[in-house]
From TrEMBL:
CDD domains: cupin_HP0902-like. This is Cupin domain-containing protein. Transmembrane segments: none annotated. SUPFAM superfamilies: RmlC-like cupins. Residues 39-105 form the Cupin type-2 domain. PANTHER family: SLR8022 PROTEIN (PTHR37694:SF1). InterPro entries: Cupin_2, RmlC-like_jellyroll, RmlC_Cupin_sf.
Length: 107
């Protein structure tokens, strides 16, 4: 089920995805009908524009600071903080500075 990650080895998730200048980078760890787990890195000023998800989406910031707009409300999250973006509620993500996050979507 898991891919792009070594099993039975201690890892820091933030080290599994690298920054790239001017880009949002993603690395999928799990993708199936029930759950999706993806790591992201955002260069400062990069974003994922407003969209909605078919499942509840839980984000944990692994490094840096990101801005999350969820249903029109704005949240600034720093390393170690988590928020849930509810199913079917429009949301967007912006790199307030370079940052990395883990996204877990449950369908």
């Amino acid at each position: 089920m898991y891919k792009n990650i070594v099993k039975k080895e201690k890892v820091e998730l933030k080290n599994l995805v690298a920054y790239q200048e001017g880009q949002v980078v993603s690395k999928t760890l799990v993708q199936n009908d029930y759950v999706s787990v993806t790591l992201f890195s955002f260069d400062k000023g990069e974003e994922i524009s407003t969209h909605a998800s078919g499942g509840d989406a839980m984000v944990t910031v692994l490094e840096g600071t990101g801005k999350f707009t969820i249903g029109g409300d704005v949240f600034i999250l720093k390393e170690g903080e988590t928020i849930i973006m509810p199913k079917d509620v429009p949301h967007a993500v912006y790199g307030q500075e370079k940052f990395k996050m883990e996204l877990v979507v449950s369908f």
